Description:
By secondary structure, the protein is mainly α. Helix content is 73%, strand content 0%.
Amino acid sequence: MKRILLLVSAAVCALLAVVAQVALRGARPASAPAMTEGALAAFGGLRSIVAEVVWFRADRLQDEGRYVELAQLASTLSYLEPHTPEVWSYAAWNLAYNISIMMPTYEDRWRWVNAAIALLRDKGLAINPTESELYRELAWLFELKLGTNLDAASPVYRAKWRETVEDAARRGAWDELRMDRRVMDEVSKAYGMTDVADPLYSAVYWAHIGRVVARSKEDVAFLNEIIRQSRAIYRRSHRGELDRSEH
Length: 247
C-alpha cells in the first residue's frame, strides 16, 4: 500500500509539473515548445502513469459534459503522448463537435472548428506525417463539418474557409495551410475539382495524401469513401464543372 501511495503521489506531482509547463506556453515565444521530448523523457516510467491519470480524468470530464476543461486536459495529453494519433483525434473532435456547439454565435463556433483543423494539420500531422488516421480525421472534418449541412452554422464555416483559402491564394501562401501546389494539381487533375476554396476540395486533398501512407486496407477503404462522398457533394454544388472536365 505504501508503494502504491508513493507511485500515485509521484504521478500527481509529475502531472502538476506538466500542467504548469502547458500553462506557461503563452509566456514563451511561438517557436519554443512548452514541453520537449527531452523534458518528458525525464519522467521515465512515470510518464505512462501520468498519461493514464490524465486519460482517466478526461473520461470523467467527458461523462460530466465539462468540455472546455476537457480541451485543456487534451492539450496536456498531446504533450504526454505526441506520437499517439488517438490523442490528436480525440482533442480535435472535442473542439469541433462538443465545444463549438456550445458557443453563442456561428462566428464563435467557427473559431473552435478552425482550431480543430489547425490542431490536426499543423501539430498532429507535423509530428506524425505518416499516420493515416490523422489524414482521415482531417478529411472527415472538412467533409462532414464544413462540406455538409450537419451543423446549422456550416454555411458560415464554408464562407470563412473560402475567405481563408482565397487570401492564401492571393499571397501565394499555401504553406500556411500546409498545402503543396504539386499535390493540389494532382487532385484537380485526378478528380476534376478546381474550386480549391471549397472545403470538399480540402477533404479530397487530405484523403488523397492519406491513401499514400495508409498501412491497412480498412484505412484505404475509409479514405476512398471520403473521396467518393466529397466528390458527389461537390458535383451537386458545381453542376457542369465535373462533366466538362470528364469530356
